[in-house]
Amino acid sequence: MSKLNKMREQIANQFIAALQQEEIPWHKNWHYIGAPHNAVTGRGYHGLNHFWLSYIATEKNYADPRWCTFNQAKEKGWKILKGEKGTRIEFWSMYDTETKRKLKPSEVQKLRDSLTDVEFHERVKPISSVFIVFNGQQIEGIPEYQELERPVFSTVELTAARDNLLKNMQLELREGGNRAYYSPSEDYVRMPKIEQFDNAYSYMSVFLHESAHASGAEHRLNRDLTGRFGSESYAKEELRAEIASAFTANATGIDYQQSPTMENHAAYIQSWIKVLQNNPNELFAAIKDAEKISDYLLEKGEFITKEPPELVDQEIDVTAEPTEEKYSYREITFDDFNKLRDAGFDVADNCRQSTKHPDMVILRYTEQQAAQINAVLKPAVGAAIKK
Questions:
Q1: What are the backbone angles phi and psi of residue 145, rounded to the nearest 5°?
Q2: How many domains does the chain have?
């Protein structure tokens, strides 16, 4: 089992802690404030970042779905509010072990075209970087968030989306009875009639959950669907379907409502706790698969989503601009950054987020400014570092 980075360790621990309190994080209607997206580019966060930022927004009661890095806020003239702590996200990129540098997407494709599969995978490796982002409510000067009008779907619209999904997945729907389930052996979804649900949203949430299971058929996304209730493989598949249906509801604006299959949620929770305590990485594998499932459902259902499908992290630039002046550099905390700003220092143009320690800021200063800075921060705060 691979070692978790600090961000993933924190997520896994908080997720397990929530389950131990019999709370299922995605049952908190994340979409009420919209999907998390970057405040500068407007692009949505995806996968683990989507999951984590949605969870944090719910836990901290943020009514703003926008996030950005310290550097992005600084470039826009916005200020991080005093005392605020950021949230870690991660960005994966491809690294060329021969040239010792990260690759642009076009460079990755060029290598794919020129190398064999074996040569490519030996030379090009995925690597992750962690960044700190702040919510719009933690930022001073950011324009007021204009809340999107929440979509309202009629029963006719929702059943049309259901029928598109069934047709494009080549999936059979059998109606009647009091149970909702997917049959892997016969490849059909069983659903109670829509009139048996409280409303069309509740019906659609359950249908998306069962369709998520159906996506795992061998001729679709090909996942292991052989597990029986109570088994580890069953728990893993149920975790994927639950997160995927929440992702899909979030992307479309459909109210996410708990599936009747989750009424016995205590049993599911205990099975998930056992799986994740044995292997915390299973949570991240589930989130990765859930995004694939959700993308598949959105495509096959011909849904119009509320967010663009692009990744946000590629525009982040944490490099310092070259200069001919002689400067010293020091890592300081965000709180110390605010102290210097309050003391009148021009920190906005002389700070950037640290790439080595993303919860710190690198301060650039002249020899003449050192004594003044130490007077504010005290000499023991922050070690001088080389550029």
A1: -70, 125
A2: 3
Shared domain check, 367 and 282: no
Per the DSSP assignment, residues forming a β-bridge with 101 are 96
Q: What angle do CA 198, 199, 203 make, to 5 degrees?
A: 95
Joined tokens for residue 321: 């601009």
CA 289 to each of CA 30, 236, 242: distance values in angstroms, whole numbers, following the listed order: 19, 10, 11
Residue ranges with strand state E in the chain: 37-38, 66-69, 79-80, 87-96, 101-103, 124-135, 139-140, 172-175, 181-183, 188-191, 328-333, 351-353, 360-365, 384-385
In the structure, what pLDDT confidence band is assigned to residue 266 with cuts at 50, 70 and 90?
Answer: low
- Co-location of 159 and 293 in the same domain: yes
Predicted confidence (pLDDT) per residue in 341-383, tens digit: 777 777 666 777 766 666 777 777 777 677 777 777 775 444 4
CB 191 within 8 A of CB 206: yes
227's tokens: 């597990």
Between CA 348 and CA 367 the distance in angstroms is 18
- What 3-state DSSP class applies to 172? strand
Distance of CA 377 to the CA centre of its chain: 35
Q: State the DSSP string of 62-113.
A: ----EEEEHHHHHHTT-EEPTT---EEEEEEEEEETTTTEEE-HHHHHHHHH
pTM given for the model: 0.64
Pairwise CA distance, residues 208 & 326, whole Å: 60
**CATH number for the domain that contains residue 380:** 3.30.70
Which tokens hold the place of 302? 């011909």
Q: Are residues 369 and 281 in the same domain?
A: no
Amino acid type, 62: Y
Both 335 and 294 in one domain: the answer is no
Q: With CA atoms as reference, report the closest residue to 350 among 375, 370, 379, 371.
A: 370
- Give the model's pLDDT for residue 40: 92
Please provide the average confidence, as pLDDT, over all residues in the chain: 79
Residue 373 in tokens? 């800075």
Structural domain boundaries enclosing 256:
155-264+275-300
d(CA 141, CA 246): 32
